Amino acid sequence: MTGKPAVLNIAELFDEGCVYRVPIYQRAYAWGADEIKTLLDDVRRADGQYYLGSLVVARCGSERNRTVYEVIDGQQRLTTLYLLMAALCHDDDDQAAAALDAWHMRLEYECRAESYGALLQQLRKSGAPDQPEDVGAQDGPSDQETMCRPLLDGYQIIRQDFEDPERRIDLEKLRTNVSIVRDELPSGTDLNRYFEVMNTRGVQLRPQDVVKARLMSAVSSPTDRETIGRIWDVCSDMDHYMQCLATPDERMRWFGEGWTSAPPADWNRLVGEAAPDNDGGDDGSAKLSKSFEDVLQEALSEEPPQAEQQAQSGAHSDDETERYRSVISFPAFLMHVLRIYSDDENDASGDVKQTSLDDAELLRVFDDKVAKIFPKTSENSEDSGDSDDSASAEDNAKRFAAALLRCRFLFDNYIVKTHMDSAVSSDATEWTLKCCRKNKSKKERSYYLANAFSDEVQQELIMIQSMFQVTETGNNHKNALYAMLQWLWAKEAVDGSAFLQHIREYARGSLEEKLKGTSTEKRRLQIREAVNQGVGTEHFIFNYLDYALWELLNHADDSPQGQDMSAAGIFGTDELPAVASEVRTRWNEYAEQAEHSGEGAQTLDCRRFRFRYRNSVEHFSPQHPLSGGDAPPNVNDFGNLCLLTVRENSRRNNLDAMEKIRHFNVAQQSLKFQFMVGQAQKETTWGEQQIKDQTELWIRLLDALSDASHVR
C-alpha cells in the first residue's frame, strides 16, 4: 500500500467529495439478507469506535475536482452502506436533513453504468423507489428490473429490518462511531491482474491476507520471508494440530525432538541453523524486499498447503484422532496474538489501554501495533533515516511471526477444543484437551494425541475452560481465553495445577465483577439485585454456578476430608464453607428421593453433566402458564431461572414446572435445573416458596464463591 491506511468514519467517507467506481471486471451487487443483516448487526453493536473492515482502492485521477478511486475490494460492503445511508437520510428530521446535505460521495458501477447509476442517484436524492419501473427505462422494463433487482432487494431488506423500532439504527451513531479502513494501492499496480489474483478460487481479499503480505514484504531475506510464510500457513489452519501441517524439519526445529517444546519468542533462536543463507545471495541482490503487491499476489496464488503438508507428515484429515474444531477463528486468534505482542500500552492518564479482541479491527490494530514496518521510499525519505526504518520494519515482522508461532503452540496444547462430529448437534458438544506428540515407534503414524495434563487436573481444566467457552460464545471478546494465553505465554514449563489455579482466580474475579459485590453489609443485597434480573441475568453467573456445583457434587463421596481440597479450591480456601455442605446434603436428599420414587420420577446425575451451548434463560415456573392462572410474584427471581438451549426453551417455555419435568431428560440438563427438579419432585410442587428457598441458597453460595473473605 502507499502508506498507513486512512481510517474514515462513515461521516468522513460520505461527506468527502470522492467518486468510488466499481470496475467492469468486478461482479454486480450480490449481497443477500444474511450478509446485509450481519452488517446491520455489526453497526448496532458499535460501542465507541467500531471498524467494519477494509476498503481497498486505487486512485485513478480526478473528475470535476473530485478524486476518483477504483474499488478493488470491499464494494459489497460499500454498496450496502450506501443503501443504509439512503434508508436513514430521508427520514423527516433535522439529523437526516443535515446528513443528506453533507453527503457528497458518489458510487458508480461500470458494469451497470446506466441502470445502477439512475437508481443510485434516485436513492441519493429522494430515497429508493418501490418498483424498478420508477427508475427510468433506458434498458426497457424487463432489463431494468433484472439489473436493478439486487439493489432494490437490498434496500427493501434494510427497510423491513427497520420496521421493528428496537432494531432501528441511529444515524448519528452510524456516522460518528462506525469507521472503515481505506487502503490505497501504489500507483502503477496492474489492477486487472491484482483483482484476478485476489479472487483466485473465488475468494476475495481478506484482512488476514493483507496482514500476511505486509509481514512478508517487510523482510529482506528470501529465507526469512519463506519462514514467515510457512509459519503463517501452519498457524492459519485452526482445525489441525501444527505438527500435522509442518514439515519434518520444521517440527524438529520449532517443537524439539518430541514435538513438546514451545517455540521461542526470539526470532534468531527460532530459525537457528535453518537459515545459513539469511543474508541472501553473494551479490546482495536478494536483500531487496519485495513489494507488497508482489508478495500479496504470490500469497494468494498459492494453493492451500494443507494437502501437501498432510502428505509429507503422513496425516489424514479423516483420521479420528484429528477430528476437532477450534473454539476461535484465525482472524480472531490474530487479535489475541496482537495483544500479547503489543504488551498493552499506557495512555496519557496512566490507565491500561488494551488492544481490541474484535477481529473487525484486525487491519487497524495491526497497522497501529506492527505495520510501522515499511521502510521509507527514496522519494519521500531522508537518507539518514532509511536504514533505521528498514531495520525496525524487519524486526517487527520477525517478532510478530515468532509470537504467532508460539501462541499457536500454546493454544494447540493447552486450550480446549470440540470434537468434530456431524451427527451431533451443537448443543451436545463434547470437549477435548489433547496435545500432539511424536510417535517414536513409527509403526503406524508419525504422531499421536495424548492428554495435555495429568489425570488429577485434566477433567478439571476441561470443565472450567468449557464453562468460559459456552459463556463467551462468539469469535470476539474472548477475554477468558486471552487471560489463559497471557499466563501460558510467560511460562517456560506449564504446570497443570498452577494453570487451574490461575483460571479459578480469574473466574472468581469475573464473578465478583458480575455480582458487583463489596465487603460491606450490603453485599448480599447487591448480589440479589444482580441475579434477580429474569432473562437479563448474566449467563456467566449461571455457568459458573454450574461449575461450582459440579466441583462440589463430584467430590461429595470422597473421603477422607483431605480429598476435598479440589472442591475447596474454588472458594480460595483450604476448607469448605457451611453453605457448600448444605448444598451437598440437599442434593443427596433430592437424588435419593428421585431414585426411590418409582415410575415417572426423573433421576438426577451430576457425573454426566457437561457444558453445552445453553444460551436461553428459562423460567421453570412460566411467566405465562398454558394452564391459565397467574405466575408466582417472584417468577423472575434467580431460584426460578436456568439456562437451556434455544430449541428446548422455545418448545416448552410455557409449560408448568411439573409438566416440564415430564418432558425433559433432566439428567442431561444443567445442575441448577436438576436442583429445581429435585426440590419440586421431593415437595411435589413448585411455586413462590420453592423459588424463594432456592434463591436464598444460591445467593449464599455465590457470596462464598465470589470472595473468600466472606465464607460463611
UniProtKB/TrEMBL annotation:
Stretches assigned to the GmrSD restriction endonucleases C-terminal domain: 607-696
InterPro entries hit by this protein: GmrSD_C (IPR011089), GmrSD_N (IPR004919)
Domain (GmrSD restriction endonucleases N-terminal): residue spans on this chain: 10-216
Biased composition range(s): Low complexity: 301-315
Stretch list, region Disordered: 124-145, 266-287, 301-321
Name by which UniProt lists this protein: DUF262 domain-containing protein
UniProt organism field: Bifidobacterium choerinum
